[in-house]
Amino acid sequence: MIEVKALTKKYGDRLAVDNISFTVNRGEILGFLGQNGAGKSTTMKILTCFMPATSGTASVAGFDVFESPYEVKKRIGYLPETPPIYLELLVSEYLDFVANLRKIPSSQKRKKIDAVVERCQLGDVRNRLIGNLSKGYRQRVGLAQALIHDPEVLILDEPTVGLDPKQVSEARGLIKSLRSERTVIYSTHILSEVAATCDRIIIIDQGKIVAQEAINLMGATGGTTKTEIVVQRSSDELTQALRSLKGVRNVQCLSNGRDRIVLETEASEEIMAEIARIAVAKNAGLIRMSPVHLALEDYYLNLISGKREVSI
Ligand SMILES: Nc1ncnc2c1ncn2[C@@H]1O[C@H](COP(=O)(O)OP(=O)(O)OP(=O)(O)O)[C@@H](O)[C@H]1O
Ligand SMILES: [Mg+2]
User: Is 11 close to ligand 1, i.e. is its CB under 6 Å away?
Assistant: First the structure.
């Protein structure tokens, strides 16, 4: 549905996007993850025909963004970093204006507007001035304008920035509800966000793709998972036995009042069962066994802190 090949964008001497290539399949939600200045918005502006690339190609639904921008724009809903809203309009007036821009026939306009108002939960503010709305509601209006014409592809640039936790969760729900109906690219610098919403992530750093992977907390860390066990009595014998287990990649002993052991292992239930069995057999007094959820975060930080050769 979206195909990007060797895309490069320079602003003067500054290389913002550096030879990136990726594809997004129909019905997929792709998370575009990277820290400030990574090149996320620049890539999105090129895909939505707001800006030409310096070199490389990109196509959306089979149409080249440089050669057929009109065809591409028809099929895309775009929520830029700053929502394109008019503060002096009522929400209803604005949606009517966008529907006209999108050339929605007047016979369908009412139905389409009602549908996005419902989907973006704007019913309560329909007759209010956009300028008087809170940030979260403005963001929802921005999302509504991106959805009004039922686009096949949605490009959302940090759609949850500035929202309160409840609104973030609602926005995630909304985006997830689009899965399979539409193709979505969704940028953020918040890791938990992509983990909660996306099928696949692309991690971009200094204009380069440093990783692309299916979202699966374990998969994204190269099939490694971290587990912490807490025991009453740690011993060399116990750590030796854990180290020699097949599938265990690393064993780290930490002491924090109690004996804590962090294991990096292959992601499999059998290994968990074996670890528990050994802790009991060595009479270590097993208190707790829990997954360490930071694995994806560690992995991400590793990638963007200069270690470039990670292959997955
Ligand atoms: N119009 C512009 N002129 C010059 N440089 C620009 C322009 N827009 C972006 N840049 C630079 O290009 C690089 C990538 O910026 P971009 O906005 O794409 O990053 P981003 O990943 O969206 O970051 P953020 O998370 O802060 O939104 C940055 O170094 C930025 O300073
Ligand atoms: Mg940006």
Answer: yes
